[in-house]
Design brief:
Oligomer: single chain
Largest sheet: 7 strands, antiparallel
Strand order of the largest sheet: 1-2-9-6-11-4-3
CATH superfamily: q2cbj1_9rhob like domain
Structural class: alpha+beta
Helix content: 10-25%
Strand content: 25-35%
Length: 219
């Protein structure tokens, strides 16, 4: 695991353990293809993605279109593994996961440019890749340096979670692999205790600032 520079702001990468990637991939693909599976209410173990509408009700140009709920057991595997990365980086009782969802991109599909929130709350986002099919496309970050737009290509690896600022624009290019590309996205909100710590960190000593960038307006 390591912190990696993006022209003054950082992302973080961490290999996750204990996730059944084959089941994760197959269940997200199955859920995407079977709308009735999610809406039936009978034996429904899909608990994630509750903040997002079904893709059939979303404009195809919106990033919500790629979002898919996850089975409870797989979601819990991810939460447990990701918590180790979060706590190892920020400490215990720092962030709580408040959203998690599967991300499904079919062959020739792509993810539009988007962020995960630009408010003043203390927030971190991330994406996990259970597989990396050849030519499926990397993750691209977009930021501004001295008024010029900068594109940073992150060469993704399987089994890795990538954490970054929720306000950082990003996208994935067209999936040229010929197979479905699956990932898991999530957002973490700071606990009241950690938010207070950040608000009082006027010398920018917390690792959180590697993601957010320093500012006279603390959050």
């Amino acid at each position: 695991m390591s912190l990696n520079l993006i022209n003054g702001i950082f992302y973080y990468e961490h290999e996750l353990k204990g996730i059944d990637n084959e089941t994760l991939i197959s269940e997200i693909v199955r859920a995407r293809s079977d709308v009735e599976l999610i809406h039936s209410g009978s034996g429904n173990t899909y608990i994630g993605n509750q903040s997002r509408p079904q893709h059939t009700d979303v404009d195809v140009t919106h990033t919500f279109y790629e979002d898919v709920p996850m089975p409870a057991d797989i979601e819990n595997q991810f939460k447990t593994a990701a918590a180790i990365a979060i706590e190892g980086l920020f400490g215990e009782n720092s962030f709580e996961m408040n959203e998690v969802w599967g991300h499904y991109i079919p062959p020739l599909g792509q993810t539009m440019v988007h962020d995960h929130g630009v408010g003043r709350e203390v927030r971190i986002s991330g994406v996990y890749y259970p597989h990396v099919p050849k030519n499926a496309g990397n993750l691209f970050f977009i930021c501004e340096i001295n008024g010029s737009r900068c594109f940073y290509e992150l060469k993704i690896q399987p089994n890795y979670l990538y954490l970054f600022s929720s306000s950082l624009l990003h996208y994935t290019p067209r999936n040229g692999s010929g197979v479905d590309r699956v990932s898991v996205s999530a957002n973490w909100e700071a606990t009241p205790e950690f938010t207070k710590k950040i608000n009082n960190d006027m010398t920018f000593e917390n690792v959180y600032w590697y993601f957010k960038g320093r500012s006279i307006n603390v959050v």
